[in-house]
Fold this protein.
Amino acid sequence: MKRKFLALCAATAALMVGATAAQSATTLETVKARGKLICGVSLSTPGFAAADDKGRMQGFDADICRSIAAAVFGDPDKVDFVLTNINTRFQALQSGEIDVLSRQTTATFSREASLGIDFGPTVFYDGQGLLVPKSLGVASAKELTDAAICTLPGTTTSQNLTDFFRTVGGKFELVVFESPDENRAAFYSGRCEAISSDRSDLASIRAVANNPDDYVLLPETISKEPLAPAVRQNDSNWRDIVSWSVYMLMAAEEKGITQANVDEMVKSEDPEIQRMLGGADELGKMLGLDNKWGYNIVKGVGNYAEVFDRNLGEKTKLGMTRGPNTQWNAGGLLYAPPVR
Amino acid sequence: MLFLNDARFRAVFYQFLAISLVLLAAWAMYATASANLAKQDIATGFDFLSRQAGIAISESSIAYGPTDTVARAILVGLINTIKVSFLAALFGTIIGVLVGIGRMSTNPLLSRLMLAYVELLRNVPLLLYLFLWYFLIILVFPPVRQAIQLFPGFFLSNSGLAMPAVEWQSGFGLTFAALAFGVVAALVVRGVSQRRRIVSGKANAGWIFALALLVLPVLAVWASGAVSLSWSAPEAGRFRLTGGLQIRPEFVALLVGLMLNLSASVAEIVRAGIQAVSKGQWEAAQALGLPRSRTLRLVVLPQALRVIIPPLTNTYLTVFKNSSLAIAIGYPDLVMVSNTIMNQTGQAMETIAIFMGIYLGLSVAISLFMNWYNARVALKAR
């Protein structure tokens, strides 16, 4: 009787300790075995990730997920989107609930160093700004001392504002809301003089206002916000796949390859285009992917310019200009390493 | 095995076994969590508490700035939680007792009205009420630049109520100590005089002494000139009112939501408590010629209290824990501050452990206090 108890105790202990030895499969193996990529995106942010009237996830971040799926499976639609909360997004990635986090997330030192995650290349160069009603008559963020400012919680946003007003030497009242809807409603109703977020997000907030022309974006960009996809740390192969799926979008734009002309471009004489689209060398194999991975990305989602214009560009409700998000040879910051 | 049949041995053995299993499970969970965190290269430990918080908090009862430590930011959140829960419990209880008594009124209009009040409040989730109160405040009242002036110096807007306030330049601690001393001394004197009255059967002047003890120390501190006050009235700044006392809409919405929700529960508890007192008590009091109001106050309520206290404890614990819904409407309570810190440091396990520990500790403290009070008012075997 007593021995049985002891054995039971030992077994329980062994089981619990055994559980610490985690699964050693790489992310790519897991994703391939599952037959689908699981991608963490924002909750309802038009332009970045929001379901359309047919229930299909649309947006810039969603298209980044699709390009990874296209690289892995040759099919951009083999993605399950998981809506991640701003407070639990990193935990969702750490715990393996999602394979990649593509969610307007700023790459910072402390996140990369202490959260057990790695960031891929910057997909969107953003910066934090402030949106105010035109009637306020404010021309600069520096004039906003003693004003109330609405933001979302737990982001770098509140810290940037605090830092900004410390440098300007003024105080402000920070009003923090858990949900984007309340945050917007409080701003529209005049509870706060200004609302602060990444400029891309402010464009989205302005676009859904009753009368977008009543609001004006202040000129200051008070922080650098390089938005990048994130993966779990210590899986180089998976990080490479995510990084190069993003670089492929940029390189395709640089080389003038589009969704429409990609079938023509396969026959191109340009050796780099041949390597990108799988006509020469075996670059895909090096990542453990199909050799046509580059072709599949462009065929499935298009190049960077097409993804940008479709979701954020001047013809959309958000009406954003490319700004710093143009190719390096046009004075922008997009610079994909050579594909060779 | 024979010794297992020994009842005394068994009693000890099984308890020992149960405790070791619990400890083993706790250790295994801790070991698994820390091993997994280490494997995923996630920082652990509580060092982050002494780092600079770097965030602004809109409402703080103690001096706080973004250069203060993370630990102090959490303390600010905790004080905000306690402040709103305490006020909600206080006002909610007062309203609840009145509603509970009104519910048993012989006037049908009053009793039905109170019934509707209770049912409306306790049958809709608190979170929805919080949204309702908050949006009512921010949508009904004008923006702060068009604030309504109620009286000179009192401004009402969707940024809350701004009013003139007295600010302590010095002498706050001394005055508080004098007041605390006065209250204790007055209570002691009152107790003594009451006992004498019961023994001698004659009225005495104890209450005059009690009152004097309550007021004199404060007046003495005041007269000594140790206290200096200054007057601060809200003034129109460029965007909003500065100075004075500002009561923010987030605080008001949360307080009103918690308070009304609590009052509905208290009303039902009070009604049940009063109805648990047997009818004979009412009739006996009536036979002695006591009017209805004094019957209620002197005969029924003291007996009802014994039934009321245990469920009331539960209600207080609920209001304290429900205050964490503050996060929905932007009131910087313990959970909201902790969430922000969690996101900046990435140390979710530690931060959650801290705020769970705080909630647990304070809830147990509330229970202990209420149990002590319950034991005091409970029926003593005579």
